[in-house]
Every structure is written in C-alpha cells, then in structure tokens.
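FORM 7B: Structural annotation worksheet

SECTION A. Query
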Amino acid sequence: MEKVYMARDLMDAYFVHNIIENQGIKAEVIGDNLLSARGELPFSEAYPTVWVSEVDRNKALEIVEHFESRKTNDENTIEDDQPNWQCPACENSIESQFTACWNCQTQKPT
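SECTION B. Predicted structure
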C-alpha cells in the first residue's frame, strides 16, 4: 500500500477516498481513530491518510493533484468552473451550483 494523501480531518480523508474510489481505484483511510491523539503523537502520525495499492499509486496521485488544484485559498470549498449567474427577478448574484435564487426563489434561467 502507498500513501497518497494526508487529510486535515476525517471528512477530508473520506472525501478524497470517495473521489479515488469513484474512479475505480480501491482506497483505504488509515488513522481515522488517531485524531484524538493530536498533541500526543507526531503531526504526521495523528492525521488520517488515504492509501492505495502500489499499482494504482500514480493514477491516485493524479486524482489527488487535480482535487488539490481546485481548492480555494481557504480550503473549505471547491472552485466551480461555471460563472455565477444573476437572478432575472431581483438581480442578486448567485453561485453557479444553485438552480434557484436564495432571495426570491426564482429558477435559474436556461
């Protein structure tokens, strides 16, 4: 097994794990029970990591690299390839992943 990703928390680890597995690569999260030991163990030992077989290492690293390249500066959201849209009714700017305006519930124009 080869380590391909060190996560900041369990949600991050399982998110990357699922991205890799959705590409047909068997992945495993290791260390998911060590988060409570932070401060007692070395940094590199207390965070969950994602591992794959040696055969799948290069493909998994490509997937992780693509994932990391799409992170925003605050690392809490993923950048969207689509531009924001403007609500035709109230003219609010709406992020592209939403299909209705948060303010007036007008549907996104097609």
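SECTION C. Observations
Helices lie at 10-22, 57-69. The longest helix spans residues 10-22.

SECTION D. Sign-off
Analyst initials: ____
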